[in-house]
Design goal:
Length: 587
């Protein structure tokens, strides 16, 4: 009898521990308001699944969304003091004025301003790679209408999801996806970028750190910008690849062809503004010579030594020593300092407009989902400037502030314009900023939007470990099967048949749509939505980030009544909305 009682007690303890472990994985054990200071420096609140599903802001409990309230006093005060003298409003006004002129010249009419939900969805897709969660929508609905867009933007700027997502997007054009084993630590590099974006370090300081990086790739994550090229140069930084990457990523110039020959087609024009000339083979290799000073020194990692670059030019008989110099605006190149410090100073010089121009074109493309030009990394020096971007470029030359630039872009009429109007929107409207351009979501945005829509709460660093692991696995699996554009992230290629089939039949969507009672949206709707009309509306909010129209509510509520069980009907509704054109496009 005693042995039986001991056995029962052991199994009871085991069962209790299992329940605690499951509860931790499913919903987390963090106390309300107990949040990492680095994660959400603003006020935080909690919401239950039931209250999130219920209709109306009056049902909203305390939410976990960063807000612009008294809890954010220090952050807001700092923002106001730093921008009170040099307000972004004047920059936004200048951009809007240039847009008006562009539309006038093109003889097109502006689309109306989009509603707040559409604008906030754009912000989420651009900054965190997914649509809004129901938790975020319910919180924003509780705020005055005039504050919703700005509150959501400030929330995202302080959100770890934004820092991680933009860090990942930056890695695409800085190091791409692959690198040599052991000496290239992509994940470490991504964390470093994320931390710099979170701290809002000046953009030029980040770039200088990359160009002048020294040390071990494990201890100094920025060194991975150099070590990713080790496999093509016998275990040392490859000057040729680094020169090409520097021009594309930081200057928006494609001079790769000059590696082999002079430019005979007029595609690359260098030299100073008053003396433009065709690109020469020497231009490329003289720039590459700066990186020849980066040497691998055993356990000390990468160290800076003297320039040691030799090359045999086309049609030359002998190999010659190549002097390190720059292909234009050489007056900005300092005479003192080690080679890579001199190069970094030239690239990021306050008077080097091409550096700011390249940064703004890329930030604009990240926010809009497509580049203004054919390629975001091909901005010839002799190309006419875009008047709409000029005020932002000039502001960036003075501030080099990433967060400030995002605030400016998000406040422009071009970003806030609708994609539809009561007349036909053409490419002419989009090219002249009269309407927000329709762009197909990137693969990771599709996966991120599906996984976020499957949950009531925002999936972030405060989510349970189980939910974070599920999201990580789902996105990786989706990218592997759907395909990833890599550094060609702004390609305008259309969707392929295999990709369409992946959306229709893929495991990621099937798992997200399951009527799982503890974790999934469909399960919560089945349990907490008081009627089918509310269930339909909440499904639209989760997937499309908008309320369903009266006709849509009536139609789909009737379909739910006809379904073989409410749970199956909700799964079908989730699947249908996720496969809609509206879900797969930014608009």
């Amino acid at each position: 009898m005693k042995r039986a009682m001991i056995s029962v007690a052991k199994w009871a303890w085991f069962g209790l521990l299992m329940l605690i472990a499951f509860g931790y994985m499913a919903s987390g054990l963090s106390k309300p308001g107990e949040v990492d200071e680095n994660e959400t420096p603003t006020g935080v609140r909690q919401v239950s699944a039931e209250n999130a599903v219920l209709d109306g802001a009056e049902q909203l409990a305390e939410t976990r969304i960063p807000t612009l309230d008294a809890a954010a006093g220090a952050s807001s005060a700092q923002l106001n003091s730093s921008e009170s003298v040099d307000s972004i409003e004047s920059v936004v006004d200048a951009v809007n004025l240039a847009r008006q002129q562009a539309m006038l010249d093109a003889e097109v009419e502006s689309a109306p301003t989009a509603d707040w939900m559409t604008i906030c969805r754009r912000l989420s897709l651009a900054m965190v790679g997914s649509g809004m969660s129901l938790e975020e929508i319910r919180h924003l609905e509780s705020l005055p209408a005039s504050e919703r867009e700005s509150a959501h933007l400030e929330s995202l700027l302080h959100d770890g999801r934004f820092h991680d997502y933009w860090g990942e997007r930056w890695m695409r054009y800085l190091v791409n996806d692959e690198g040599p084993f052991l000496v290239f630590r992509r994940r470490r590099f991504g964390h470093w970028l994320s931390e710099n974006i979170a701290a809002n370090r000046p953009y030029d300081a980040i770039v200088r750190d990359l160009i002048t990086a020294e040390g071990l790739w494990t201890d100094r994550p920025q060194v991975n910008f150099l070590t990713v090229t080790f496999d093509s140069n016998d275990g040392s930084p490859d000057p040729v690849r680094l020169a090409a990457r520097t021009c594309r990523a930081f200057l928006g110039l494609r001079i790769d062809c000059l590696q082999c020959h002079d430019d005979f087609l007029g595609n690359v024009n260098l030299g100073d503004a008053d003396d433009r000339r065709g690109g020469r083979q020497q231009d490329f290799h003289q720039l590459a010579a700066f990186y020849s000073s980066a040497k691998t020194n055993g356990l000390q990692g990468v160290r800076t030594e003297d320039v040691d670059y030799k090359f045999q030019y086309l049609d030359a008989d002998d190999t010659v020593d190549v002097e390190a110099t720059v292909p234009y605006q050489s007056d900005l190149l300092p005479q003192d300092g080690n080679p890579r410090e001199r190069l970094a100073h030239w690239v990021t010089h306050p008077e080097h407009r091409q550096f700011s121009r390249a940064a703004i074109h890329r930030f604009w493309a990240l926010m809009f989902g497509r580049s203004i030009t054919d390629a975001v990394d091909n901005l010839p020096l002799d190309e006419a400037a875009n008047p709409v971007l000029d005020p932002i470029i000039e502001d960036f030359q003075s501030h080099r502030d990433i967060h400030r630039t995002i605030r400016i872009i998000a406040a422009t009429d071009a970003f806030r314009a609708d994609s539809k109007a009561d007349y036909e929107i053409t490419a002419r409207h989009e090219n002249n900023f009269a309407a927000f351009p329709l762009t197909r979501l990137r693969a990771e945005q599709v996966a991120g939007a599906i996984t976020q829509a499957s949950k009531i709460k925002s999936i972030d660093r405060q989510s349970s470990l189980l939910v974070q692991l599920m999201r990580f696995g789902a996105i990786n699996d989706f990218l592997k099967r759907y395909g990833d554009l890599g550094e060609n992230e702004f390609s305008k290629d259309g969707i392929t048949i295999p990709q369409r089939l992946m959306m229709l039949n893929g495991n990621v969507l099937n798992e997200a749509a399951k009527s799982e009672p503890l974790l999934n949206t469909t399960g919560h709707l089945k349990s907490f939505a008081k009627d089918d009309s509310l269930a339909v509306d909440v499904a639209f909010l989760c997937l499309l980030n908008r309320h369903a129209s009266e006709a849509e509510v009536e139609y789909f509520a009737d379909k739910l009544q006809q379904a073989d069980g409410r749970g199956n009907g909700l799964v079908d509704l989730f699947w249908m909305l996720a496969n809609s054109t509206e879900f797969a496009w930014n608009h």
